[in-house]
Amino acid sequence: GENVEQHPSTLSVQEGDSAVIKCTYSDSASNYFPWYKQELGKRPQLIIDIRSNVGEKKDQRIAVTLNKTAKHFSLHITETQPEDSAVYFCAAMEYGNKLVFGAGTILRVKS
Amino acid sequence: GAVVSQHPSWVICKSGTSVKIECRSLDFQATTMFWYRQFPKQSLMLMATSNEGSKATYEQGVEKDKFLINHASLTLSTLTVTSAHPEDSSFYICSAQSSQGAFYGYTFGSGTRLTVV
Question: Number of Cβ pairs closer than 8 Å across A and B?
Answer without folding.
Answer: 43
